[in-house]
Structure formats: structure tokens, C-alpha cells
Hints:
Layout: H1 14-33, H2 37-42, H3 61-68, H4 74-77, E1 82-86, E2 88-90, E3 104-106, H5 107-119, E4 123-124, H6 127-136, E5 144-151, H7 155-167, E6 171-175, H8 189-197, E7 201-205, E8 213-215, E9 222-224, E10 231-232, E11 237-238, H9 241-261, E12 269-271, H10 284-297, E13 300-304, H11 313-318, E14 320-325, H12 332-345, H13 366-369
Parallel strand pairs: 1-5, 1-14, 2-3, 4-5, 5-6, 6-7, 12-13, 13-14
Antiparallel strand pairs: 8-9, 10-11
Helix pairs in contact: 5-7, 5-12, 9-10
Amino acid sequence: xxxxxxxxxxxxxxxRFIQAAAALASGLALSAATGDPRTAEADxxxxxxxxxxxxxxxxxxxxxxxxxxxxxxxAADNGDLLVLSYHxxxxxxxxxKMAPNPFSVTASQxxxxxxxxxxxxxxxxxxxxxxxxxxxxxxxxxxxxxxTFDDGSAGQWTHGDAVLRxxxxxxxxxxxxxxxxxxxEFVTWNEVRAMVASGRWxxxxxxxxxxxxxxxxxxxxxxxxxxxxxxxxxxxxxxTLPAAETRVGTDLDLSLHVLAQQRLPRPLAxxxxxxxxxxxxxxxxxxxxxxxxxxxxxxxRFANVSPGRLVTPADLTLxxxxxFEVHRHVTALxxxxxxxxxxxxxxxxxxxxxxxxxxxxxxxxxxWRAGRH
Length: 373
């Protein structure tokens, strides 16, 4: 059956056709604004934000000269994995406004980092390859790189994806599932699906909504909600351990449920909020519970360490992997020097395991700094 709109302008007259079309467009826009999932599926263009053009990816001549003088990477050549951790990717023109936020890199900065890594032989690996290496003990190929981005910020879609496409790398986006589509600074579910469909992106878990801090006692010092019992200043009582364990377990279960509901693959990896695994905490029993739960749900868990170092076979055995956290001030040359130093350090037996008390010294998280609790 042919509708009046579908049959063209003639039966209605030009003015009535324009009015009907305008009304239809207005209705679609209203449905999109109110989050009607049927509209989002029928008209993904209304929630897929335009992507920026990829920046230049030529290697800086000065950096090329440094690399030519030698880039010995003994540990990386032996199969130790390099994992990089980024957060937000922004347009080059807003770089002068980035001073308060150390967790953003520009598209050109990201392109320079990846171009440098490609020039010295790093190749992308996917989570399944890392899981396979963990389960079989088979070394990863020399100079393997796992690129990760936390929080699911909008710039990963609007700017980061173009850089991956141009440089030939893939990446993992660790989503806070409760924040997806909740504000303009986060990706939408349709954008997440487009990222996965491109083949360039995999999904990791970064909690549902427990990515925030809580007061941990009368002094109101705030720490990661995932590994701390929350202090209630009104009743001056501490959350009970059973209540905290239920909260943490429910949050991680909900994050997986939401991803399944969105018809997305179950994630193989989890990134700890604020890179806090062991502490600071007001209850070590809760930290043990959170790590045991995460280990049961995800073959791989990640936390940033400082100074950054490569993932060793011992780390793979634990399934708890260290990451380099890359900030806005890091140039391609500085990243090159950091990676080279880490590879040389990793050759020594003393640096072959994560070690107790190391992971929680990772950098803070932008959502914490911004007060988004």
C-alpha cells in the first residue's frame, strides 16, 4: 500500500507535503531527544555524531632521527605486551583550553603516538589473543600493543576512531555502562555499536555506576567505591560489609546485563576505577571480594601503574595486567623513551611481577577529578 508521503508531492500539493515532512522530522527529533529506542534503531543518523577527518600521520623528522640511532626493546621483542591507557580524545583546536584536564589528548597527539609505535614495529593485538596467551602460555608476537581507552567518552568516536582507521590500530573502550548516552560527553549506544561493527573496537567493562568515590569515615576522605565501604555522615555509620559486597556484585552484574541487552559482546576485560585494586581501603575483605569477583567474571583485569611497565608472563598468569597511563603532556618522543626504558627494565628478574601494593598507585581518573560521582 502506498502512503501519501510515499507517492510523492502531487496528490497532496507542495505546501501540504512540506508541512507533513516538517511534522515528521519534528516528531523524529522529539523521539530521539526523549530516548525512544525504536527511533534510535530506525534512524541511527540522529545519534551518530559526525566524525572528524583523520589528522596527519607522518613521522616527525626529529623523532625519526632519534629512532634511527637505536630502539632496542628487548622485553617487547621477547613477547612482553605493551598496554597503553588513554581517556578523552579532543579536537586539536581546543588544546589551549585543556590545561585543567590532564586526561585528554588531541587527535594529532594520538596520531603521533601511534605513528611512532608503528614505525618501531609495534602491532595491535586483540583481547582474545591476550586471553589465549594467558591460557596456553604461548608468547605473544614481538612488540604487541593493546590500546585501551577508559570511560567511553564521545571523543573516542568523533576523533579517536579516525586515528585508528588511519594508523591501522585497534583498541578497547572500557565503558561505564550507566553513563553511555547519559550526557553529550559520552558515546551513545548506537555509536558503540558502530565502533564494534567497524572491527577497530572491542568493549571492556568499567562498572555500571560504581565508578565514583565515597566517604570512607568521619574525616570524609573519599576513595574508590568499588573497594571501600561508604560512610554515611547523616547516621554516622559505615556501610556493612554484606551491603557493600551486594552493591559491588549487583553493579558488575548490571553492567554485563546492560551490554547483553544492547546486543553487544560480553567483555573479556575489566578496568578498575581509578586503578585502585588493593587500596586505599577501609576494608581489605571487600578488596579481596571485588578482585575475586572481577577475576571470576573477566579473564583479564587492568590497572595503571607508575612508572609504566610492560606486561610479563607472570602478570598474564595472574590475569591482572599493568598499563601505561598517557596524559596530555606526553609527546611522541617522550612516549618512545618511556617504552624503551620500560622494556630495558623488564629484562631484570626483579621487575617480572606486579608485586603487592603496586597497582593502586596508578593515576587518578578524570571523572573523579571532575567531581562526577
